[in-house]
Amino acid sequence: MEFVLFCSRINVLVLLFALFSPFKFIQSPMDFGPLNFLQPTNTSSLDFGRIFFNSPFAVLRPQTPKEISLLLTVLSSPSFSKVTVSARGAGHSINGQAQAINGIVIEMDSMASSIKIHRKIDGLSYADVSGGTLWIELLKESLKEGLAPRSWTDYLYLTIGGTLSNGGISGQTFKYGPQISNVLQLDVVTGTGQHVTCSSFQSPDLFHAVLGGLGQFGIITSARILLEDAPLKVKWVRAFYNNFQIFIKDQELLISIADMVDYVEGFMVLNEQSLHGAFVSFPTNLDFIPQFHADSSTVYYCIEFAVSYHLRMESNVDQVVEDISRQLSFMPSFIYNVEVSYFDFLNRVRMEEMSLRSRGLWDVSHPWLNLFVPKSGITEFRDLLLESISPSTFEGPILVYPILKDKWNSNTSAVLPETDSDGVIYTVGILRSANPNGCSPQCLDAILQQNRYIAETTTGKRIGAKQYLSHYSQEHQWRQHFGRKWDRFLARKFEFDPLNILAPGQGIFNRKYSKNPTVQIQ
Ligand code: FAD
């Protein structure tokens, strides 16, 4: 049974008493009489992936961090030995990571989104933001002050707490690091109910554990995000390639000139549909006509980079783009550039979302697979990928772009592959949609099996890739994933969530009945 409770201190206690009372008197939300209940909703068992649908037995909509703290304090007592808790941000996970089967889901959007911008003339500007706030809301608010965060995800309707629990990557990552490298401080409620303010200087172990920590160590109720002066607009460039080696060589060139370039990504063009899908948000007259062959042997690649009007004179930006373009080896004449506002540039995926929604193709299953691939294995990875999928019918983008390992703090919980000395890693997003009109449940299963094959093969020793937004269900897989970081991850879990109450949807730990270091996998 699922119900939703608008929470107050009293309500948390009533909820807990009611749920665990031996009299089992909760039959429906209405049985609570005068208390303020909503009818059950599906959202807590639904995510963007639409692959897992695990129902909690309760949904909590707290209004203050204190209520989360109270809930976790009470759940740490032996009387509540089976209950797990999952924070839910925007629910844009793929594999049920924000779900809590038979546990309690805390919907973070219930706490009024609070954004306070601090502009410093002689120091760092930053924003204090509640954990359930969407990045788009922070962008809108900070732009009013002429400021903006430096590091982004491609899509902005994700929460601060959700992306900081993973990493938060996009075309700015090569330059500024992921979003978890751009946080100054966090307020966290740990698995034992303690409400702690932490940073690199104050409770640094908790701070670093939570960043990229898959929700395992605490619930982020607030984050202090670094801001910079926002550019007004950007010059956004796309250039086509028909040779993978030249494509990656040029991408690596672009990330080596970070003083000139502000954003670098790239994607594979496998068929007509993937080409047009990628150009929904890019306002240009595209005269590139790819020649795809029936045997799927032809694949194109597209680099995109951007140069911001960041205190640079307008004419200067054109000159910078020209200087950069001269160094690249794209297919002659197939380069396009547009000038867009900074807001529209950052919010570009929203336009794709709207287009997909209008065709009923947004609320479908998304068997996505994201990986970090060391530069040394990227060509083998590409070959394996193209052998495994069917390029002519593939639906959805495949992103491929380089980032630099030295922009990540190795004290955080995020996991990256080993690299060569230059520290270049490729992020690969195989972002497939399973359109129910063309893809039956069997077809979705087949895609998931393909993903497993690609993930298993490429995370082996030879290529040495690591999953991003990882999905595993067995202990040995998580151990292999974390590698040398596993023991530290385990020690931190024991310190901050010793009973394994938090984020059960990640499938790493089983709820414990008492403080004992044994690891159990669901
Ligand atoms: P949820 O799915 O709600 O939660 C994810 C995990 O974080 C769960 O384990 C949950 O328990 C935990 N969690 C949520 N809130 C908190 C909190 N406040 N405190 C502690 N733990 C919490 N990622 C990128 O890095 N770059 C991209 O460009 C990118 N683009 C995307 C585009 C789309 C269309 C989608 C659907 C996803 C994209 N993602 C991208 C992935 C996205 O960053 C992750 O799925 C992220 O977890 C989603 O945030 P959310 O708020 O929906 O989190």
For the secondary structure, the number of strands is 19
Report the sheet with the most strands, covering strand number, pairing sense and barrel closure.
8 strands, antiparallel
Q: What does the radius of gyration come to?
A: 23 Å
Percent range for β-strand residues = 15-25%
Number of domains: 3
Total helices: the number is 15
CATH superfamily of the largest domain: FAD-linked oxidases, C-terminal domain
Question: What global shape is seen?
Answer: globular
Question: Which structural class should the secondary elements be placed in?
Answer: alpha+beta
> Which fold name fills CATH's third level, the topology of the largest domain?
Vanillyl-alcohol Oxidase, Chain A, domain 3
CATH class of the largest domain: Alpha Beta
Q: N- to C-terminal separation? A: 22 Å
Uncertain runs with pLDDT below 50, 5 residues or more?
A: 5-10, 21-40, 517-522
Bound molecules: flavin-adenine dinucleotide
